[in-house]
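### Sample
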Amino acid sequence: MSEKVRCQSWLSGFSSWRIPIWGFAVSRGRHIDVPSNERISVYTEITDANELGRQNIGEVSKGYDKILRIAVPHKHGFQAFVNITHPNTVRQKVTGYSIDIFTTAMEKLQPPRQYKFFSFDGTYDEIVRNVSTGVYDAAVGDVTITAERVMNADFTMPYTQSGLSLLVLSVNDSKPIQWIFLEPLTKELWFATVGGFFFTGFVVWMIERPRNPEYQGSSLRQFSNASYFAFSTLTFSHDQIIRSPLSKFVVVIWCFVVLVIVQSYTANLSSMLTAKRLQPSVTNLNQLMLNGDYIGYKDGTFVRSFLRKEGFPDERLRAYINQTEYAEALRKGSRNGGVSAVVDEIPYLTYFLLDHERKKEFKIVNYMYRTPGLGFVFPLGSPLVHNLSIAILDLTGGDEISQIEEKWLGTAALSTSDGNPIADSAPLSLRSFSGLFVITGCVSTLMLLIRITSSVYARYTRLRGSHLQNSDTDNGSAHIEESSGLPDDMGNGSADQHHNEDRSEHGLGAHWRSTSVGREEPGPNHNSSVPADSVQIEMSGSTEQGVAMALQAAT
């Protein structure tokens, strides 16, 4: 039997083909007749695909068993990030902030991978090229992610942010400071504060003026006393007595506002005086370019290529390797063999200023260039990049990253690791104290309205009482005029008297009688009027009081 016949007989039991992978057509419940010559080719391709899958699985399993050769840059400065002792020997020890992050992230991988560190002496660009060419399986350290390096290798997710800034020397400003005492507060806040003093003085004057002699007298005296009292609250030296509880409440609230403003003003002024005295010698790269100054950078980093792109020639660039060389070069200056500024990444500059003495002497200015951050290097297409990036994200989202930073970079680095340069103090604005001014304004206005309302009510009460008294007086006078009909002569006096007595008894309920004590008979020239002291009037009730007031007014 020929080979073709044997193949046909071996495949004759298969009436349909269901091929789910490798790009062939799939039969969905239908029988597809495949010619005998095509059945042989399909069988051959399926066999080749299965063999290829077994080879790939074997390569992956061998890859996980392989010990990774990891390059670590051998640094002579900033060893808190990466430090190698006894490189490439049995006693080799690799430590640092970047190393701890890498080892912690690798422990999270499943299955775990084996690796070995190798010291590398060279630039960061060279270590990336060695990884891309396969000399090393990865590079671990403080390697900055840049566009040029990403073209040759893969980087993991950055484990810390970064960027470029200037490190400069702070110089003492010897110029006289004349009007700096006005700078802690903005113009709007100054006007609001002065207006608050005058408004408080006006409210206290309105409340105290009716009863307090300190706020009475001439207009000039009243204005001066009220103004002096209001502005004396600035130093809490007001000695004028305030009597009304309303004005006391106003003064207490205003003194609290003054206390907050004075304390904030003092703190901001102190900060400004320090900032004015310690000014950075250089503020930006353009100033360095125009002055022809020398610029320093950390040896082996991408900062050199960045400065060359900015237009600085190589003869004006000077490389340094550690913090001590940074400080010495800046103290010397460009004219004495040093530099006017050092351009470096913010994590290193922040670590440089952790020393308190250096923090007083140097300053970070001009956050000028942002980079993705620091990451770990792998060859293009490495499957470890994705897995390790997930492990780094899980690490940065927990407390482990904070513990590692505190261990190597100190607690101060945690608050400045974002790379923001140190800024000078800004003036205090009215918006910062708007709540206090609203409170004191509302309280003062409320107390003033209460005082005005009480004054208006008291005046209304007095006017109403006076009107009632005038009405009673008018009624009493009318009764007196009706009851005071005196006789023209003594002869008619008795008749009138009896008539009035009868009328008083029936109508007014009051009576009067006339008596003559030691009085002689009137002569021909005697006046017919009766003396006032010889008339006795007896009244009852309110009529008696009204008549007495009328008599007093007549005398």
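Confidence is low (pLDDT under 50) at residues 1-62, 414-423, 484-544. This sample (Ionotropic glutamate receptor C-terminal domain-containing protein) is used throughout the tutorial notebook.
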